[in-house]
Write a sequence for this structure.
């Protein structure tokens, strides 16, 4: 039995140096950050539109909301980050929390939004400056990925891509990539290929939310695009709603998958937002028992395959957490 099994799991998870490659800013706001934002709004005399609050923001296992309804919870985060000050504060507090959780490197991602108080360009500028300032006080290395929301038009996607390129040129040490996310039932991947290709040509890396719902045709299109990474990859293995073709393509290309444990909590396939970055905290947030969490870890491991044998790296997780003890 390894020491890990007898060590306090929470301390172990926290102390373990971690990298975070899939954190949506709007999905990472903690309760305390949201309270700080509410305070900021109150002090500035800004009307707080978030009357339905914390309970709605958390999506527990077995939540009866459907996929599209789950995406509506982000509007709560959005309404609390509609001014440059609030957005900067949200960024700073979130980065500090990731560091506090033992995260040493993060690629934060966010969708530039126009609000009555800022343009999309100001949105990006605000976050870039917040990251720059945070780097003076924090040890965590922080980068930014610009998100394109699947609900936007191809033209809006190109506008976002152009801005991502512009900021990448000005701040290559901060802006590192572009990604496609948002409600996976919305839009069509084809529509976003020109925007993503432009960004890629300019030097930005590309990561795509892929296979969050059962859509093998789109998974193939996305893999053909050869993104540097994909997010989730839930419906790719034939046993889990994908096809032999999708699994073979992923195995052949060896595209790294940003696994999101908390996105596999719903029996229908997907959902739960990534509110935290640490296994045990995820368990608490989503009221999962440790054994359920361990099972999710194993399920997620199906997507991490050994380069040579192509077998899932289940043993690695078994070594990581002594599962029979849970
Ligand atoms: C769980 N699976 C998911 N699948 C797809 N997109 C997701 C997501 N979780 C979050 N987002 C995307 O991130 C936005 C919130 O952060 P930002 O406002 O960009 O910082 C959501 O509106 C959605 O577009």
């Amino acid at each position: 039995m390894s020491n890990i099994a007898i060590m306090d799991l929470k301390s172990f998870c926290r102390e373990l140096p971690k990298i975070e490659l899939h954190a949506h800013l709007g999905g990472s706001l903690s309760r305390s950050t949201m309270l700080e934002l509410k305070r900021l709004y109150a002090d500035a005399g800004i009307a707080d539109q978030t009357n339905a609050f914390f309970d709605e923001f958390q999506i527990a296992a077995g939540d009866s909301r459907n996929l599209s309804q789950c995406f509506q919870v982000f509007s709560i985060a959005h309404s609390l980050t509609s001014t440059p000050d609030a957005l900067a504060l949200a960024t700073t507090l979130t980065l500090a929390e990731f560091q506090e959780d033992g995260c040493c490197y993060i690629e934060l991602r966010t969708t530039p939004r126009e609000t009555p108080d800022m343009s999309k360009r100001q949105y990006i500028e605000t976050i870039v400056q917040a990251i720059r300032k945070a780097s003076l006080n924090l040890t965590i290395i922080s980068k930014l990925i610009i998100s394109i929301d699947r609900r936007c038009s191809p033209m809006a996607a190109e506008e976002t891509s152009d801005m991502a390129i512009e900021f990448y040129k000005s701040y290559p040490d901060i802006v590192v990539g572009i990604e496609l996310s948002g409600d996976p039932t919305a839009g069509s991947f084809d529509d976003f290929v020109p925007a993503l290709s432009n960004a890629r040509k300019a030097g930005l890396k590309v990561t795509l939310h892929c296979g969050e719902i059962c859509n093998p045709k789109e998974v193939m299109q996305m893999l053909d695009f050869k993104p540097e990474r994909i997010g989730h990859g839930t419906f790719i293995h034939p046993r889990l709603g994908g096809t032999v073709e999708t699994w073979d393509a992923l195995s052949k290309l060896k595209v790294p998958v940003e696994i999101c444990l908390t996105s596999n909590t719903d029996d229908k396939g997907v959902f739960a937002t990534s509110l935290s970055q640490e296994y045990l905290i995820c368990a608490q947030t989503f009221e999962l028992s440790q054994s359920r969490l361990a099972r999710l870890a194993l399920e997620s491991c199906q997507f991490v395959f050994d380069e040579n044998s192509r077998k899932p790296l289940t043993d690695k997780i078994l070594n990581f957490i002594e599962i029979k003890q849970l």
In short: The two ends are 13 Å apart (CA to CA). Residues 3-325 form a domain with the TIM Barrel fold (CATH 3.20.20.140).
